[in-house]
Automatic annotation (TrEMBL):
Name recorded for this polypeptide: Succinate dehydrogenase hydrophobic membrane anchor subunit
Gene3D superfamilies, sorted: Fumarate reductase/succinate dehydrogenase, transmembrane subunit
Keyword Lyase in record: no
Transmembrane segment boundaries: 46-68, 88-106, 127-151
Protein's UniProt keywords contain Metal-binding: yes
Lineage: Bacteria, Bacillati, Actinomycetota, Actinomycetes, Kitasatosporales
Keyword annotations from UniProtKB, A to Z: Heme, Iron, Membrane, Metal-binding, Transmembrane, Transmembrane helix
InterPro entries: SQR/QFR_C/D, SuccDH_FuR_B_TM-su
Source organism (scientific name): Streptacidiphilus cavernicola
Length: 156
């Protein structure tokens, strides 16, 4: 393959008129906001690291949960209100479920934030989608935490 100044000559003698056709463009051009500068924080690196670490911890929490609940405790047929009440009477199981809830929600929200950043083209769309995501995440985490800590087995 010989490279010329105006075009690329192919082996069979054909010409490619535009050598820029082989260039891969960046996914999004620089905006006025970042303008190629480095940010003061390293948020994206910390978010990337959080995804890896929380994923590893979640694998152990979820597999442990499944093994204990489905294998050692008799399976799905044993799960009832009384079963949950007995579990959540122990601070260990409250902490286990709380950690699993928080990590799963934050892990999933961080992944969705990345998807929104990648696919929402307009800034206003990206803003509203992220606000909706944060609202849903905060609501779910707070409600789940409230349920775990205020669960009353003596409901009549």
């Amino acid at each position: 393959m010989a490279i010329e100044t105006d075009s690329i000559e192919l082996v069979d003698g054909g010409q490619v008129a535009d050598p820029s056709a082989f260039l891969i463009e960046p996914p999004r051009s620089r905006t006025k906001r970042n303008n190629g500068r480095k940010s003061r924080t390293n948020f994206e690196m910390l978010a990337w690291l959080f995804m890896r670490l929380s994923g590893i911890v979640l694998v152990f929490l979820v597999i442990g949960h499944l093994i204990i609940q489905l294998t050692l405790d008799g399976g799905v047929s044993k799960i009832s209100f009384a079963f949950v009440a007995g579990r959540w009477a122990s601070p260990f199981w409250q902490g286990w479920d709380l950690l699993m809830l928080w990590l799963a929600m934050l892990h999933g929200a961080n992944g969705m934030r990345t998807v929104i950043n990648d696919y929402a083209e307009r800034d206003t769309t990206r803003l509203w989608l992220k606000l909706l995501l944060v609202t849903a995440t905060v609501f779910t985490v707070l409600l789940g935490t409230l349920v775990i800590f205020t669960f009353d087995p003596n409901i009549s």
